[in-house]
Amino acid sequence: MLTAELGVTRATAGAVAAELAALGLITVDSRPAAAGHQGRPSHGLSVNPAGPVVLAAQVHADGFRAALVGLGGRIVATAPGCGTVPADPAHVLAAVVEEGAKLLRATGRRCVGAGLAVPSAVAEPDGEALNPLHLAWPAGAPVRRIFRDCLTDSGIDFAVPPRAFTGNDVNLAALAEHRHGAGRGSAHLLCVATGHRGVGGALVLDGRLHTGSAGLALEVGHLTVNPDEGLPCHCGSRGCLDVETDPLALLTAAGRAPGPEVSLLQQARDLVRDEYADPAVATAVALVADRLGLGLAGLVNILNPDRIILGGLHQVLLAAAPERLRAVVADRSLWGRSGGVPVLECTLDHNSLVGAAELAWQPVLDDPLGVLEP
Amino acid sequence: MLTAELGVTRATAGAVAAELAALGLITVDSRPAAAGHQGRPSHGLSVNPAGPVVLAAQVHADGFRAALVGLGGRIVATAPGCGTVPADPAHVLAAVVEEGAKLLRATGRRCVGAGLAVPSAVAEPDGEALNPLHLAWPAGAPVRRIFRDCLTDSGIDFAVPPRAFTGNDVNLAALAEHRHGAGRGSAHLLCVATGHRGVGGALVLDGRLHTGSAGLALEVGHLTVNPDEGLPCHCGSRGCLDVETDPLALLTAAGRAPGPEVSLLQQARDLVRDEYADPAVATAVALVADRLGLGLAGLVNILNPDRIILGGLHQVLLAAAPERLRAVVADRSLWGRSGGVPVLECTLDHNSLVGAAELAWQPVLDDPLGVLEP
DNA sequence: CGTATTTTGTTTAGCGTCGGCACAAAGACA
DNA sequence: TGTCTTTGTGCCGACGCTAAACAAAATACG
Q1: Structural domains of chain A in order of their starting residue, each with its CATH number
Q2: What is the pLDDT averaged over residues B39-54?
Q3: N or C: which end of chain A has fewer CB within 10 A?
Q4: 3-state secondary structure of A136
Q5: CB A307 within 8 A of CB A188
């Protein structure tokens, strides 16, 4: 077991592994993992493919999604959910939990917790959704508490009590990418992404999400990135990152009228994918990428991350114009020139969902015996 | 001993106190501290007034300063130092250390470490001064190593080896204010200050300085706060916080030509103190305060601090126009309206110096027995 | 003024965690 | 086949802390 390289002796590593195996979380392979070099080979440790799961869910402007996620961020089963979101959070979350319960019945897996990603800043202690601007929810709705009540009423057989967690979607995406995706190994990870609407940011410091003193940190949407001729923003200013780099901004810059059929994000994605040869589209991408680069440079000056990962439309922009975007970030950040910050794309599918699952897994990882008794 | 309220039992608190007293760091008063209420009174614990000290120093554009600082941030002795700073860091630091050695000889105190504050971002591992723009030093000079070498050569009798620490002046000011000043008790403290030149920021998270992945965080000087008619900045942009809210900006806005006799900061201070009744001065203060408020609001949206403290000229602006500045911060930050962030003045004299001392005290606090044997 | 009560300091015993060590096991190499 | 190298596992002891019991020093009350 190479685990001795985690600053822990073989003795303790073995004890921990035995404990986790006894709880059914991991399996110890009889077949050694890596052979080839001298000495007794290490045991291979792998996540128990029949082990417990958590219920992960995401609500966004265009619908919701539920899934079962195993230890290590592997999605075991998914239910797409419906495409509209009622204005009453309790109704939505009841439907979400119902989908999850169906998945649990279908798979027969044991559920040890639940996590929910929402497109809003989230505050403790009740997981209040502070600004669900893109849902029709009331501001301040205690989403975590509602979610927990839905879980309690669902009849799902939890390891008591039902542990429910809630977080902002971009924050959770960053957490997932840090553990299993493009952010692995980063100590100061900055994630910026367009969700289905608007722009969000997240910061993972030493493996832990930085959400600020009240869960309101990294509201990066209102950095000024186009002071000269910026569009007005609902915040009262103009030229904000939010309105200058979202899907609508790209469509407008390319001279396209948005259609009502699919989400704006999808329309913008399709535009870049299918019509990048069109000079108007390429120009629009360059323009919006420049604005994004300016915003990222400002964040670099304030936060000094060691890596930036981009999601949503921002990821598309990076893929379409990587040199240009990276050059702007380097030129406009004071320290980009000396070394510079890697700017990467997100690599996980459904990273908000996986992040919500990580939230739910956390207490199990912190204290396995406290959560799983039998 | 009320120390039992730190999540530790009376037994351990007593053991720790006894250890610290044995090392000469604190004294246990025979006279009880607080009487009046029932029960056996607690022992009063106070910093040993004859205990060891650290050597703290600050270099800035207009000179340097050395001091001896006891445990708890009390300045024991100060030497003003000279008013000019040579271009060679080794010369400056040799002079600084010489002043410190004089103080040590004069007071007969034991020295257990040394800390230095410089007006530049500082990187590990050698304490490189990355951008000593306002000193004539070469960028990247390994200040911490030079400082340590000067200490070694000084003949000062250290607890071996001479432990030298270096940090950015505003960062260290924030650290000092967090421990002994206006930032006490804050978990997410943001500090913004004009040094003798330019604008700096610092963030103290859960009691620890956040300096970013390479010591470059909180370079807040280049937030855009005057997009419409801003002054050009050496960073290539215009309307930056750095050029819009520094002492020169205030003097210019008030229509005064800066004189060469005293520092710009002092001239700006004097202007506000002596001529605030002049409508031109009051208008200039309001204008610069608005710009500062806009910058602070941007930082609030990104960092979500639970408290902001201001130093240097910014502190003067807050004192002169508190309602106006606080209103701008609240109005322009997305969450200021609901609750809002307290904006306060720094309260410590020589806070950078005290912060440098805190840096030097840290290893003693972490492991008293490891540093102080006899 | 003497006793009871309250609060804190101090000592002791106990527990849990972790590192170090010794020994066993399992493959590689000669 | 025998030795070497590396890892798993069990045992012991050091360390840090908590809890509990006792002593001490003040206030409150009769």
Answers
A1: 2-47 (no CATH), 53-171+351-371 (3.30.420.40), 185-345 (3.30.420.40)
A2: 90
A3: C
A4: coil
A5: yes
Identify which of B134, B137, B138, B152 has the alpha carbon closest to the alpha carbon of residue B94.
B152
A170: three-class secondary structure by DSSP: helix
Residues above pLDDT 70, as percent of chain B: 95
Give residue-wise pLDDT tens across range B86-104.
Answer: 789 999 999 999 999 999 9
Residues of B in contact with A215 (CB under 8 A): 304
Locate B173 and state its tokens: 């000011």
Distance CA A308, CA A183 (A): 8
Distance of residue B351 Cα from the nearest chain A Cα, in angstroms: 22
**Residue A225 · residue B227 · CB < 8 Å:** no
Q: Does A217 touch chain B (CB under 8 A)?
A: yes
Average pLDDT value for residue range A260-276: 93
User: Would an 8 Å CB–CB cutoff place B90 in contact with chain A?
Assistant: no
Across the interface, whether the CB atoms of A339 and B303 are under 8 A apart is answered no
Q: Which nucleotide is closest to the Cα of B17 by its C1'?
A: C9
Token look-up 């920021």 returns B201
Q: At what angle do helices B169-180 and B351-366 cross, to 10 degrees?
A: 70
pLDDT tens digits, one per residue of A302-325: 999 999 999 999 999 999 999 999
User: What is the residue-averaged pLDDT of chain B?
Assistant: 90
Average pLDDT over chain A, rounded to whole?
A: 90
**pLDDT tens, A81-101?**
777 777 899 999 999 999 999
Predicted local confidence at residue B238, as pLDDT: 80
Q: Which helix (H) or strand (E) holds A123?
A: strand A122-123
Cα–Cα distance, B223 to B218 (Å, whole number): 10
